Amino acid sequence: xxxxxxxxxxxxxxxxxxxxxxxxxxxxxFTTAYTGYEESLTDPSxxxxxxxxxxxxxxxYGVREERFESDRxxxxxxxxxxxxxxxxxxxxxxxVPAVDHLDTRDVxxxxxxxxxxxxxxxxxxxxxxxxxxxxxxxxEAMSDHTEIGAQVSVEETTVHGAxxxxxxVALVDCGVKGSIIDSLLARDAxxxxxxxxxSAADVAAVDPDVLFISNGPGDPANYEQAVTxxxxxxxxxxxxxxxxxxxIVARALGGxxxxxxxxxxxxxQPVLDLESGQVVMTTQNHGYTVEDPGEHLEVTQINVNxxxxxxxxxxxxxxxxxxxxxxxxxxxxxxxxxxxDVLAMGNGHSRTRPAIPADD
Length: 360
Prior knowledge:
- It contains ten helices and 19 strands.
- By secondary structure, the protein is of the alpha/beta class.
- The chain folds into two domains: about 1-140, Carbamoyl-phosphate synthase small subunit, N-terminal domain (Glucose Oxidase, domain 1); about 150-345, Rossmann fold (3-Layer(aba) Sandwich), CATH 3.40.50.
- The chain has a ten-stranded mixed sheet, sandwiched between helices. Strands 1-2-8-6-4-3-9 form a seven-stranded mixed barrel.
- A hairpin with a 4-residue loop joins strand 1 (about 1-10) and strand 2 (about 15-20).
- Helix 8 (about 225-235) packs across helix 9.
- The termini are far apart.
- The model is unreliable at about 350-360 (pLDDT under 50).
């Protein structure tokens, strides 16, 4: 096996076993998921990041293309305690450097204590620690990736479910997972997938019933055109969003967003619905969150672990967003009814919202 080195912003340089050669740099993050590694690796929200798996063995049920969320692997590199040959071969075919035989408990502890950090990776027969350090020195902060939307979005509008008889959804692709589109198609919707920087005229031309802002990577402040689309249509159309989409919607309606210390990434994040008191388990993958929803949105769901907003509803507008992934694959499936709620807004009537308390 080839030498492999991981240089961390904390000053540590780790040595592991090289499973797929190359050099890379990105923001080091971790996921606690122990299943769904194929879905995680093809999730566009991991663009420009280096993904560490906290579960010790990745690949124990092979690699199947039908589980992919997009057409390629998005993390810049992959770290693990142990990768099976199937996963290592897949990453090698995608030219994504991979390192295992690392103490990922220490890596995760570093990230939890110091926050998501820059890192550099060097894997290969002649790789040295200095090569990894050189990659680290060239690494940019996530907020500096101002064109990250273009790296993950469609270049031209595509149409899915053209023969369907249900609602027409204008979906702004900021890095959409395939399962989101599939969940809408399963409910007989026709989905027009627009580039992240689509114009208002392009969206209006399909006469949609709902405007939907997708998940995606990076800082929501760098998606100015998507924010503009929400501002343009929110008084005319129902608006929905998932993950990055929630943050974009909040910014469009006067709210603010902030970077989290190490984010939420995994399949076991507990979310409390403030109206029903019910707690559901969710899949999440985000490093930014809504700091203040503003005066046009109310928080309807929160993360049990840190009280960050997980669901927003419009106060005077038809708006519904989720910070987690209701369409989660391989699961859990506690929140799939979100898509029913989204399309119900397109019927000209909203869900029954909790009463807003009057000011004293």
